[in-house]
Design a protein that fits this description.
The protein is mostly helical. It is built from 6 helices and no strands. Helix 1 packs antiparallel against helix 3 and helix 1 packs antiparallel against helix 6. The longest helix has 23 residues.
Length: about 120
């Protein structure tokens, strides 16, 4: 996978996280649990993040250059939202509250590093 494609996947991860953060700013878990549109958007973005991470981890020859674990994020691609099923959204909320900022910063750092010429790495 060339650097341009890697950059596109990183951009998708960054954009997805930013959309999740925008959708959930100022709300708590109870509000999240009750807001169907917010949950649908969050789960859709998690799937996109997971797919981008999967592509980075499985189609990249130099994934060691990335500074975060894409395999963990790749699990998000299986995030499914079903408004009919009452499921515990607490684990998703936990990721939103405690992990997304860290992942966002790591993806930004990887993106910046990827954008540098090879001789400066």
């Amino acid at each position: 996978m060339d650097k341009e494609v890697q950059q596109q996947h990183l951009n998708n991860i960054i954009r997805g996280i930013e959309e999740i953060k925008a959708d959930t700013v100022g709300i708590n878990y109870e509000t999240f649990r009750k807001e169907e549109q917010v949950k649908e958007s969050v789960y859709a973005n998690m799937q996109m993040i997971g797919e981008a991470a999967y592509e980075l981890s499985h189609a990249s020859d130099n994934k060691g250059d990335l500074n975060f674990n894409t395999d963990i994020l790749a699990g998000f691609r299986n995030a499914r939202y079903n408004s009919e099923a009452e499921i515990n959204h607490q684990s998703v909320w936990g990721v939103i509250e405690s992990e997304l900022d860290i992942i966002h910063d790591e993806a930004l750092e990887a993106s910046a590093k990827l954008g540098k010429p090879d001789d400066t790495l």
